[in-house]
Amino acid sequence: MRVWNRHSRIVGVTQERVGALIDTLSEEGDRLWPVDAWPPMRFDRPLGVGADGGHGPVRYRVESYEPGKSVRFRFTAPRGFDGFHEFTMRATETGDTELVHLMVLRLRYPAWLTYPLLWRPLHDALLEDCLDRAERELTGTVRTPARWSRYVRLLRNLISGNRFRRFRKNRLPPTSTTAIR
């Protein structure tokens, strides 16, 4: 099974400002990753090609990194995830900047079972929170904050032993583009 999952946000700032935000990933003062509600992104060394790490049980290695522009991660876990995820950006016709997160996977057993039931809803919620954080950092506000679905709240409570119950109880599903073939 193949997965193509894309989340993006258009912000009225320069590419340089968005690139600087990408560069903070996994640092102590990470301004992009939603560390207030999700496991932090951590690596065995500063962000750069070859750095190993991930967030929670999701593990990956930095495959490519262009400071101020993009970063691509190659999955090493969970079992059955063959692919990558990346943060990139592009200029829009109006002069704004689109921050994009793309995940491309070929799922193998057991991930073809666990991805739709567990990983996809959690991933989508995390990425929308990440883009909310980016928009807030870059513009000072979030036009339409993402909301967690009841299913995401249930999964988080089951996985965390209710540790995250205090975070945003009444969230609705995030918007994303996901294609599974």
Notes on the protein architecture:
The protein has one domain (2-180): START domain (Alpha-D-Glucose-1,6-Bisphosphate, Chain A, domain 4, 2-Layer Sandwich). Helices cover 27% and strands 33% of the residues. It has helices spanning 15-22, 111-139, 150-160, and strands spanning 2-11, 42-43, 52-55, 58-66, 70-77, 81-91, 97-107, 177-180. It has an 8-stranded antiparallel β-sheet with strand order 2-3-4-5-6-7-1-8. A hairpin with a 5-residue loop joins strand 6 and strand 7 (97-107). The longest helix is centred in the C-terminal third of the chain and has 29 residues, at 111-139. The termini are close together.
What is the β-strand count? 8
What is the tally of helical segments? 3
Radius of gyration: 16 Å
Order of helices and strands: EHEEEEEEHHE
Report the helical percentage: 25-40%
CATH architecture label: 2-Layer Sandwich
Low-confidence segments, given as residue ranges, are 164-176
Question: What share of residues are in beta strands?
Answer: 25-35%
Principal-axis shape: globular
How many separate structural domains?
Answer: 1
Strand order of the largest sheet: 2-3-4-5-6-7-1-8
The overall pLDDT, averaged over residues, is 91
The CATH homologous superfamily corresponds to START domain
Query: In angstroms, what separates the terminal alpha carbons?
Result: 6 Å
Q: Report the major sheet.
A: 8 strands, antiparallel
Structural class: alpha+beta
- Top CATH class: Alpha Beta
**What is the CATH topology classification name?**
Alpha-D-Glucose-1,6-Bisphosphate, Chain A, domain 4
